[in-house]
Amino acid sequence: MSLLRADAFISPLEIERAVNRSLEEDLGRAGDITSIATVPEDASGRAVVVARQAGVIAGLPLVAAAFQRLSPAIALEPHARDGAVIAAGTKLMTIAGNARAILGAERTALNYLGHLSGIATATATFVKRIAHTKARVVCTRKTTPGLRALEKYAVRCGGGYNHRFGLDDAILIKDNHIAVAGGIKAVLGRAKQAAGHLVKIEIEVDSLDQLEEVLAVGIADVVLIDNFDLAAMRKAVALVAGRVVIEASGGIALDTAAAIAETGVDYLSSGALTHSVTNLDVGLDIEM
Amino acid sequence: MSLLRADAFISPLEIERAVNRSLEEDLGRAGDITSIATVPEDASGRAVVVARQAGVIAGLPLVAAAFQRLSPAIALEPHARDGAVIAAGTKLMTIAGNARAILGAERTALNYLGHLSGIATATATFVKRIAHTKARVVCTRKTTPGLRALEKYAVRCGGGYNHRFGLDDAILIKDNHIAVAGGIKAVLGRAKQAAGHLVKIEIEVDSLDQLEEVLAVGIADVVLIDNFDLAAMRKAVALVAGRVVIEASGGIALDTAAAIAETGVDYLSSGALTHSVTNLDVGLDIEM
Amino acid sequence: MSLLRADAFISPLEIERAVNRSLEEDLGRAGDITSIATVPEDASGRAVVVARQAGVIAGLPLVAAAFQRLSPAIALEPHARDGAVIAAGTKLMTIAGNARAILGAERTALNYLGHLSGIATATATFVKRIAHTKARVVCTRKTTPGLRALEKYAVRCGGGYNHRFGLDDAILIKDNHIAVAGGIKAVLGRAKQAAGHLVKIEIEVDSLDQLEEVLAVGIADVVLIDNFDLAAMRKAVALVAGRVVIEASGGIALDTAAAIAETGVDYLSSGALTHSVTNLDVGLDIEM
Amino acid sequence: MSLLRADAFISPLEIERAVNRSLEEDLGRAGDITSIATVPEDASGRAVVVARQAGVIAGLPLVAAAFQRLSPAIALEPHARDGAVIAAGTKLMTIAGNARAILGAERTALNYLGHLSGIATATATFVKRIAHTKARVVCTRKTTPGLRALEKYAVRCGGGYNHRFGLDDAILIKDNHIAVAGGIKAVLGRAKQAAGHLVKIEIEVDSLDQLEEVLAVGIADVVLIDNFDLAAMRKAVALVAGRVVIEASGGIALDTAAAIAETGVDYLSSGALTHSVTNLDVGLDIEM
Amino acid sequence: MSLLRADAFISPLEIERAVNRSLEEDLGRAGDITSIATVPEDASGRAVVVARQAGVIAGLPLVAAAFQRLSPAIALEPHARDGAVIAAGTKLMTIAGNARAILGAERTALNYLGHLSGIATATATFVKRIAHTKARVVCTRKTTPGLRALEKYAVRCGGGYNHRFGLDDAILIKDNHIAVAGGIKAVLGRAKQAAGHLVKIEIEVDSLDQLEEVLAVGIADVVLIDNFDLAAMRKAVALVAGRVVIEASGGIALDTAAAIAETGVDYLSSGALTHSVTNLDVGLDIEM
Amino acid sequence: MSLLRADAFISPLEIERAVNRSLEEDLGRAGDITSIATVPEDASGRAVVVARQAGVIAGLPLVAAAFQRLSPAIALEPHARDGAVIAAGTKLMTIAGNARAILGAERTALNYLGHLSGIATATATFVKRIAHTKARVVCTRKTTPGLRALEKYAVRCGGGYNHRFGLDDAILIKDNHIAVAGGIKAVLGRAKQAAGHLVKIEIEVDSLDQLEEVLAVGIADVVLIDNFDLAAMRKAVALVAGRVVIEASGGIALDTAAAIAETGVDYLSSGALTHSVTNLDVGLDIEM
């Protein structure tokens, strides 16, 4: 059974790079000197990865890779896979094998699992708040540096969707671009001219007037309505009338999510899902 | 003027690697297609990095490196340096030069600055709570994967101290090690035998009885008292009487910090400082 | 003056990586042993990069980077920039400085320039053939391994456009996907459900019947009509009537391009632009 | 059975690096989003790599490595090995296993196979033209950047030989070196003095006079006669009378090859074999 | 059975990186052209790694990794493990499998084994000289660039101990630090203030007066007595009376080691163990 | 003035990689914690690289690069260049600038300089012993792993020459190859057939009989006479009579070198020059 969520993806190359980088950080030059000093090299152990909190799991493929990297012979028995909604105390994976390898990879495994599950859990909470609407939540490019692909995946594990992965996979026109280009019509024209036929165009608007102008030009696929109040959002939804996708951003928080989603916007984007992460508490119960 | 905090360190090699990795994530294969489409290649701009919240700053060397990486000719004028305690609205750095380079490096720069300043700010809040005691706060190995050296640095910017950087720079004996080795006396003996003369030995204890045993053996430099209540902590401090350094861990939170520090322990260790980070809100005000 | 074409992009990180990789290939472990043996280390030289054929130039930033990598003090005077349409014999850049560095970087510089200019030139020839129509030519993912970003850029230098940079920046549904999903309606439904709101959906069709089905479902942004004859293409254009973008592929060659473009399709995609490249003949005239 | 041609070589490290680099280009950050959306994660498939044109095969080890990299459990059954001369329609390898992995590695596998087989096929055509003579064809350092070792290998698969792999594995004296050193005698003396005892010395001459001078000095192992006409080549061969190896270069093309080879020169060197490559048409027939 | 010495460590990531780096150096771009020319690709061979000299072995995990890297199917039968004290002629490992792979990895394997066993052997000789005392020998940061972790490990294999792995794992105050800080008391105060609670402090002293001052301040964990004569060392030991650890450095050689150790110092540090290494003579006996 | 020896080479890419690797080893994750604690960040210093022993210098470009890597603004004044024969106490380079950067790069700089100068010095001693003959000394592939290119360069600095840099730059036939191929004639025939026209062929012989056979076949460029005694060497020289180059190997040591060289052989190859290196004692005199 794959440990990845079925409809999301992390490349095996990314998993390998991530685990290597983190093991190098933790093992340093001399390795786990405590275990080398106190645990016989041929000691075996058994450990269970446990969620100490309820939440949504993301990162199990990295957990598996971390232990296998230090001991290819280690035995892994997964009890869940990414995207699972679990209760506190749920056993996620059993690991059996060389004791030093278990102890040496423990922190790498748990740091990834706690961080990514934290994101998945926060996303799932968000998704639940807006589940009675058609709106979806998306994360942004405000990700932890070096972890973008993994964090985007974690958002998917929590039931959210992804905005751009980088500056290069869609056009997103903001105020500065509008200003430099000399207005909405001009900037959309330039974007249309430059964009490949598989590239969508989104534009950020700060007011209903700007929105009307965007709709009049008729090039944008998506409008980002930034910092609109609820009333303005509702007007925007009415104005757009399904002609483009509407994404709301700015001050999107857990307690405002439902009200915003109920205005009829299509997407809510939240940077906090990835830039301000609370770890899910996960641990390793070890018997040696 | 260096942008690094004077008494802390990030290697220039680490800064370069971090910035490259993050720019690659964001620029992808095709780069900032929005700006390429809408901003003339020779357009100049001026941007100011601004803290939108009060806090403590960490990460300015990465900010500088990100912009310079995309345009070596860009002009940078710093208005603060790492470790600065700043008010909301403080201007941190002025950047002037190629507009596309400013827009292309913006997110890399802000993601580092927001994340590391978030850690520094949380640390500083913690430090303030215990400032009336002799206790220090330290972070742990529960860091965001790939960012350990940077996050340890951010903790220093906030006035905290660092525990181990990895498994290899001190011995830290936990319950599993004690169990495998056959008890506290045996495990400390093995550690003493194996440790280099520049390696300190710390041991985690769960009870006052264990603590007494540790003190009787006399090898440990530091004891980690894990999940002790306040009364037990006070007894531990009395028992130790300065013979070893005492570090308290387990359930260390902002609202319990003062009471714990007042028991007389030397160090409080907090994983949350680095594993559950709230970004400091920083932004870029751009004029083009 | 930038050497990059104004409306296209290669990341400076990519340029650095590419040049390093190629210099390592050529210098090997012992370097340019001929020049070390025969040219005094302090000899200076002057060299001119010359196009020995007419064509369109792409790759000058890599030329500059190659020489500077071996001698940061070398002086470069460009006489053209990427995208320039030049006659045979045109001088593209003058290089002056350490003679050994000039000889050591020569092949790296010319191999990139010849290869990328070959692509740009072939693209420009293609573009010219269809210039009387509204159609655009795009390249595919059939690129030389390791050079995708550079080759996509070269196509832009020649006046072409880019299809997907990778599997991850748009959905492109082919026959296998349709078969597995159980038909066109089902596969488009799944794609719609899974796709982020900034991801376009393209679907390949083999017949007008399939095209009708696609149009009836109404989810696709782009249809790829594969191996249609001219008559069928004209019918497809009529059938679509502007509702989706039409891309023609399969057997697109220089001598069929005009006729295909005249059918009214929006895009012609050609793998040969990047998978079967004829170098533009470029050379270095050296005076030492 | 090894997939490598028996008398040629690519390092397993190079294969791994090449495949990783190309998969990263193609999978990007989000992977094969089409297949993730439309193909069940546990779907199995069967695919056959087929040559759609007649030619000579090179690159099968990279094909195998690409599929295995995405799914170590995938089953590979080769039907040919590198160097094989095959007819159009020949099945080269059967792949069975995870359908998403097959689709995700397809382009990487085919891009290598098509490019390298294109070189092997062109080389074989060349070799055939001169098969009635003792002459051999060699490729040059005009290779596609980043692919030198692979392309040199492909030339071997087609029956050609390799000139220098880089600037460091033999001395090749050209006009600039002669000029700087002060003439043929002086430059050969310097080369002889500097060269290790396992390094051969080749010198390029533009005229029969220069050739005579080279022969008189008596140090060179090989002479490169550049842009000689057929008559001059014949004179050169007579003049040399077996004392040194003769390599002809400049304007070596398929239609002139036989005549040149018949002059009695030992080697013909052709940059076009690697700098102007026409892909061999290869494809993947998939059943899912 | 692990090939690593039981109480010492090299990370599997480091082994992989080391072996890759060295194989790349040796295989270059074209590989083992001699064996490709003369040994059939399917030839099998059998080889025995033999110590041609008596000594102490270090590096067998790298030997194994080198052969496996070129042929995963190769069979390895170890007859010893790292740390073994062996006689001349001892067989260390038998390798059976593809003959070209054996020949291609031979030098990489032997270069590591000879170098690291040379260090282990020299260390063991040193350790023997002081075995009648309580003193230990430690290596320094004067290691061969790029090989620090491996050489530190080899010292452990020979029975020695490790000083700092880098500038970051302990404080070591030297004359320049004392001078800049304004004296011993000041510098120790600063170090104490800055050091984490798991970082030891060592200070170098050049005289008994300085030593007294250090002892009076009472912060240092270790004193490094540099270039003391034997009489001064004895006085230092008496003066210290067990309050701090004493390390002797400067002119520590094999013939002075015993006398120095007999003065009662705790550690002797020797740069020569790693900076001036005599290879242990190891070879490969091959039958094909 | 370049710091490289004029007639030898290290690539700037190799210098950068080497220095980065070594600085990473030494700075670790937390950097030079001693200097950070005790030296003000804006303190300036002046340091002189001094040879404490007489010898031949190699490695100054790496010294320069190490200091510049930590502080691009540092001022470097060289007083010598690689290949210089210097007396004990000679000042090699003066460095002025940030004190922490000087201290942080000191060990990296000295480790390279001491190691490579050790090789250059040992080589120069060897060269001197045979200076009255026409023989040259060459190093082998028995180099310190990871340092081959640098060590080959150091041998050149000492006046020696280089044998193969790797398995790929010449054919060297040994006993196993002869045995597998079925004798000397067969193996030389295969080698001749396979070798490119710029690849030399060397063959190792163990007896005069084998030598005669080699000469009779007439393909080899170089013969390696392995473990011949002086009388046999003289016979070999007489037998060869200038038809091929003769290299003597096996038991080549400093005290036997002159006698061997006087037999008339062309090259002596010595593995010990690079596999058993005694550091040249170099140091840094610092004023802060």
Percentage of residues in strands of chain A:
15-25%
Q: What CATH first level of the largest domain in chain A would be assigned?
A: Alpha Beta
Q: Overall mean pLDDT score of chain A?
A: 97
Give me the CATH superfamily of the largest domain in chain A: Aldolase class I
Specify the CATH architecture of the largest domain in chain A.
Answer: Alpha-Beta Barrel
Keywords:
four-stranded antiparallel β-sheet, alpha/beta, TIM Barrel, Aldehyde Oxidoreductase, domain 3, homohexamer, seven-stranded parallel β-sheet, 2 domains, 288 residues, 11 helices
Quick recap of the structure?
By secondary structure, the first copy, chain A, is α/β, with parallel strands linked by helices. In chain A, 44% of the residues lie in helices and 20% in strands.
Structure overview:
The structure is a homohexamer of 288-residue chains. With 288 residues, chain A is of the alpha/beta class. Chain A folds into two domains: 12-121 and 278-286, Quinolinate phosphoribosyl transferase, N-terminal domain (Aldehyde Oxidoreductase, domain 3), CATH 3.90.1170; 129-275, TIM Barrel (Alpha-Beta Barrel). The first copy, chain A, contains eleven helices and 13 strands. The first copy, chain A, has helices spanning 12-27, 33-38, 60-70, 99-129, 148-157, 175-181, 184-194, 208-217, 230-240, 254-262, 272-275, and strands at residues 44-51, 55-56, 75-78, 85-86, 91-98, 136-139, 161-162, 171-173, 201-205, 222-226, 245-249, 267-269, 282-287. In chain A, helix 9 links the parallel strand 10 (222-226) and strand 11. In chain A, helix 4 (99-129) crosses helix 5 (148-157) and helix 8 (208-217) packs parallel to helix 9. The model of chain A has no long low-confidence stretch (mean pLDDT 97). Chains in contact: A-B, A-C, A-D, A-E, A-F, B-C, B-D, B-E, B-F, C-D, C-E, C-F, D-E, D-F, E-F. Chains A and B meet through helix 1, helix 2, helix 4, strand 8 and helix 6 of A and helix 1, helix 2, helix 4, strand 8 and helix 6 of B.
